[in-house]
Structures
1.
Amino acid sequence: MTSIMTGSAAAAGHETPQGPAAPPVVLEGVAKRFRQGDAIIEAVRGVSLTVEEGAFVAVMGASGSGKSTLLHLAAGLTRPDEGRVAIEGTDLAKLPDATLTRFRRRRIGLVFQAFNLVPTLTAEENVALPLLTEGRDDAIAGRVGPLLDRLGLAPRRRHRPDALSGGEQQRVAIARALVAEPALVLADEPTGSLDSATGQGICRLLRELSEERRRAIVVVTHEPAVAAWADRVVVMKDGRILAELRAGDDYRDAHSLAARYQGAVESS
Ligand SMILES: Nc1ncnc2c1ncn2[C@@H]1O[C@H](COP(=O)(O)OP(=O)(O)OP(=O)(O)O)[C@@H](O)[C@H]1O
């Protein structure tokens, strides 16, 4: 866990030939409402959040506080009623639906609690799928094998999901999320279906990937033991950001994070 204390949240100063790179995701005053019968639910209310390259951010909060909705807004799976979502400087509102879908496939990797692998395909076929969908067959040989190696899945590459453990299935899902080399990986309760030791292995892997590959990673979780791997923890309540906690200053491990999180929620 030492890397949490030393890990830098923001990769400031990354330059492209055009100048400083825009952050992987910027949310500005984003709001989302849902109708439930006669009631209007304000799931997310005026949230602003920037996640820099290489940052590992966790989103915590009680059930119904708006965490998944926030993640879906960042992924462009849901369009906001107010505010702006920009991925690497591209305003998602300016993209028509079909363009947004293609953009998402290229720039955003998604990981879910339920893995969502295709049951009839092998591990390597599942990982190759985003490249096939994009007509990037040329990239499959160079990317899928090395990624499976890196994630410790090489011996399992020809197995279908039902022959893999939960942790292996989630590693396949993470490989699939990374294969297009996205700017941003969004994970909704990625350890929710796993035992705690396997879940910690997945967290360690996400942490390493954020450091090695400079991906921005946002993880929604209920578990302090998962969030403690992050550089920053965003605490949500009733659709708003209640507090932001920083590794090293506000917490050093799952226990101190849980105490700080509880304190933030109780004092609100
Ligand atoms: N598609 C939808 N239609 C109607 N209401 C919705 C929809 N999606 C979310 N909501 C409502 O918006 C609020 C926020 O939901 P959201 O799923 O974002 O919360 P959450 O913090 O992720 O909860 P959990 O931890 O239980 O997954 C809840 O009141 C939920 O019932």
2.
Amino acid sequence: MSSLSVAAVMNDGPVIPVIVIEELAQAVPMARALIAGGVRVLEVTLRTPVALQAIRLIADEVPEAIIGAGTLANVADLEAALKAGARFGVSPGSTVSLLRAARSAGLPLLPGVMTPGELMSALDEGYGALKFFPAVPAGGIAMLKALHGPFAQVRFCPTGGISPATAKDFLALPNVACIGGSWLTPAAAVKSGDWATVTRLASEAVALRP
Ligand SMILES: O=C(O)C(=O)C[C@H](O)[C@H](O)COP(=O)(O)O
């Protein structure tokens, strides 16, 4: 049972890094590089074969990290993430089974939604803090402004297609608590072990909200 709340995950910093780990050896240095830049909340996506082991390794070896699992597509993913030591979860979309399983497991979950109907289903299940995915293809800033009308109580973490250049405009919206993005851990820098670049990108991301 985690004592962490979704609000705490969303409020820790302006940007949640969406991380893809191809090789297990990258996990700990990458986590340390992000933390050195001031980013503690780390979302490791379950997109690669080593993702669960990477979560376990970071949970064990980088205690300053608030480690979570992304790309939770179903209840089995959620259970595997919990077992690996994830302290929160993020999903690209929402199913009632996933939302209920996260609630009963006590895992803070940031569920993805894209439409008003999906948002209403998530609200029905008691979730008012949501990932808006894929943010830019689904209407970006204009869509978030439109959703603010009927659903002013919902707090979003838009993710998908956001860049350092557009991040500030998203963060300025009243219904945006934080944003997600993969640009903090560029594949080339990670592959070559250029952790200084990751640290610099992390500190620039933290500085997006003074
Ligand atoms: O894997 C998941 O769980 C996802 O939901 C997808 C990611 O959140 C986006 O792919 C990140 O978007 P970019 O910052 O545009 O790369």
3.
Amino acid sequence: MGRSLEVDDPLAQAIAPPPNESPEDREARLSREREAKRISDDIDQALRDERAALKRRKKPVKVLLLGQSESGKSTTLKNFQLTYARKAWQEERDSWRAVVQLNLLRSVNTILDILQREMTGSGYISSPTSSDSEDEDEQRDATHLQFTEMHRLLKLRLAPLRRVQKDLERRLGSGAEEPTDAPPGMTTEAAPQEFYVRSSTGWKSTLEKLKSRNSTGSRDDSHTREWREREAEESNAIIAGCRDDMRSLWHDPTIRQMLARRKLRLEDSAGFFLDDVERVAAIDYSPSDDDVVRARLRTMGVQEYRFVFDKGSEAGQEWLMYDVGGTRTLRQAWASYFDDVNAIIFLAPINCFDEKLAEDRRVNRLEDSFLLWKAVCSSKLLAKTQLVLFLNKCDLLDKKLRSGVQVKDYVPSFGDRSNTLGTVAKYMRTKFRDMSKQYSPESRPIYTHLTSVIDTKATALTLGAVREGILRNHLKGASIL
Ligand SMILES: Nc1nc2c(ncn2[C@@H]2O[C@H](COP(=O)(O)OP(=O)(O)OP(=O)(O)O)[C@@H](O)[C@H]2O)c(=O)[nH]1
Ligand SMILES: [Mg+2]
């Protein structure tokens, strides 16, 4: 462009080489100019990179939580909220009271159902958490249980809790919707009586039903709301009135014997609050952080959660997390979220090597996790997606192994390795990693964590590392790092 300038143009004069320039001076000048151009180009490139990085940063980080039902997806999400969205968490916490109450009543009513059958001799019902080969043992010993007048009285006095459970289900808007996942010919009797929600906006809307909606889904007027509040108070009063009897039931040696014979490990099942009945059934009960993390509310559909980090280098970065329902019939919905997803946190509960799926009692839960993991790894759509694997429920695995359950009885390839947490976890980790190596369309690192996501302190540390890793990957290629 300089060439086309007129000789008397001030710019042309300013940039023209000095007159009488020696060849050495000319070479030195050209070298300086080349260096200046290189620096200028570098700056231009840096600016372009920064713009690209900012654009990338603005794009939300999308994370999908996957895994079978009860693997701990929603619990992991709760940990994210607890750590990174404190304010929303605190606003929502009290709404979980009804869910915790429902969880408690589910355990109590399960015990009462079994007690009823044992006392009237109407025989065996199978249990949701019992494992394969337990059925025959139970009936064999049932006749030796010594029930007394006290058991009959407890049964009678705790009877109103059935209605309270129904009321709570109705108030949560899910009473009419029991899981119907059992395949034809299979009974749903054994499936846990869970409470779940259909919602695309998260728990908040669900829990708000407790306050502002009636069972037909229409908005309440103030009169109805008042009536429903009274109903809630009534439920609270009945639960509080039954507190001592619930405690007696749970601590009664014959009842414990009855449950042990059925190998019903209520204390290891989802949403177990009987050990906290004193506190949870109190009239002024308000859920703690831990209670909310442990409360069980089954996810239906796909729920989207938005987090915006407000601190440090990630300020303003938006994250979208998707929590899906893990039961079989809900898995078709997953694929439509695969597009554009940055990372998947896959949860595999490794304690359940001896358990069956609630929705299909023919399928071993660990086997189901393997198949799901294989499907995720081999998906072409997800070939470039970062995979983070949580081998979850390590606390329950440890408990189970200590109680003497042998992995090799259910997983023959485990062989004669030692039946301890460390060895079993290592074995599972290798199994999952080998599968990802074998089935991933392109090689990729797999980030594996041994977790117990009800342990909020440990999980906060894990999530910190996971978050860093995902963000690093998200920004990869941009010079801002
Ligand atoms: N002891 C123990 N309990 C856990 C752990 N992870 C989850 N839970 C409990 O297991 C239950 C099920 O967990 P959720 O997070 O609801 O499972 P989910 O994967 O969201 O299940 P769906 O919504 O049905 O797909 C909850 O009551 C949790 O508190 C764990 O590591 N240890
Ligand atoms: Mg869930």
4.
Amino acid sequence: MTSDDFLSDRAARPVVDGPVIEADGVRRSYQDGFEAVSGVSFSVARGELFALLGTNGAGKTSTVELLEGLARPTAGTIRVLGHDPYRERAAVRPRTGVMLQEGGFPSDLTVLETARMWSACTTGARPAAEALEMVGLSSRARVRVKQLSGGEKRRLDLALALTSRPEVLFLDEPTTGLDAEGRRDTWELIRALRADGTTVLLTTHYLEEAEALADRLAIMHQGQIVTAGTTAEVTASQPARIRFTLPDDVPAGHLPLSLRAGADGRRVEIRTAALQESLHELLAWARESGVQLLGLDARSASLEEAFLQIANTQLRSRSEDPRGAGAGTTDRNRFPGKTKDETKKVTA
Ligand SMILES: Nc1ncnc2c1ncn2[C@@H]1O[C@H](COP(=O)(O)OP(=O)(O)OP(=O)(O)O)[C@@H](O)[C@H]1O
């Protein structure tokens, strides 16, 4: 049975015109005054997969919890399926699936008992066995939750999130702890859900996951979105790279002036904002000079390179800022290892 066999049987529900998820100027301060989300705005269209990326402590989970209706923003507005997810929780919650970063299950129940209990509490639920099969946990149905591996617990989390046949799925680091095969299976399932019209908001630290799945993404740093767009748009702002090795008898000084900067002996790495032009110039020079470029490799910036570049730039600009990283009323570095709000443990 494939993931597709389980889909497309949602009960008829009101269709929303416009974005399914909308955040506008959203802020979140914790009780101790620490502002974890500092004016975040974005929207997600129906059937779109939007990934929220960022450094540790950037504010991703704090933002997602607001979208899930688990907490109220300090400022700004949020709409999910046209409703305020906190005030109008009863209208939103049955239509959404939530996979928290840390699920909390009664550990003495078996996997099947847990899924059945969840299914019994959900209107229009998938049968428990079906949800388990979707995530590849059928063979572990009789095992107690406390005996599951970390990766298997993530899959059970996902099964429960899928129980309500959600129109909107919030996945907070869904593949953390999964092995390579489990990750690929989960990607396939997420792709199938999206193809079926499910809107997905995903947070992840795996940049290749965002690259593989996301229609659009945003990179957060210190409570703010610093860049957003498609993967191509986000990486386009970063320089592309051309690498090759020159033959022994061709010194790097023979390269055209504009291409010499990245030479280290015979090995050359050129960073360029205009990949096509630079390649054209290089290949024209190589042909005219009869030079063989060994191991020639040219590629656009990867999402990982773009991410690291953006994170480093942000860190540099903050350390150069005379007001320092903790400018304003709150100090972002004051609580580096802060335990998450208890809401994280809530799986309802
Ligand atoms: N209950 C809380 N009280 C005070 N500060 C908190 C609380 N929960 C989280 N924080 C702080 O808010 C900031 C953002 O945390 P959040 O969990 O949203 O980040 P994140 O981007 O999801 O990080 P990670 O990728 O490490 O999971 C962190 O500095 C964190 O210590």
